[in-house]
């Protein structure tokens, strides 16, 4: 069985709809990468300002390319009116744990 590695997104603002908002931001680049297999947020921790997420594309061989690209452009990009303007993820890494 091939090991699949997830992409870990650090520093996601801990807001109510963070999963949906992060998915919308990632979907902006769906033409560049294969479809997302799943996106999972860490447990809701009301006492923290940030959270984390794990992301897996359907073809995990593109994870390094996606990681490099997403670190370069930053997700989500801060913009006026965005519910995620208080912070953007600090870094995106590949989680090397076997699934």
UniProtKB/TrEMBL annotation:
It comes from the Eukaryota. Residues 73-99 are annotated as: Disordered. This is RRM domain-containing protein. It comes from Brachionus plicatilis (Marine rotifer).
């Amino acid at each position: 069985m091939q090991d699949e590695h997830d992409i870990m997104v650090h520093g996601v603002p801990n807001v109510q709809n963070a999963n949906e908002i992060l998915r919308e931001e990632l979907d902006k680049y769906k033409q560049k990468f294969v479809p997302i297999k799943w996106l999972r947020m860490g447990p809701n921790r009301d006492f923290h300002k940030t959270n984390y997420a794990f992301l897996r594309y359907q073809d995990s061989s593109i994870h390094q390319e996606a990681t490099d690209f997403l670190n370069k452009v930053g997700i989500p990009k801060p913009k006026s009116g965005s519910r995620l303007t208080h912070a953007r993820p600090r870094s995106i890494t590949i989680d090397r744990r076997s699934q």
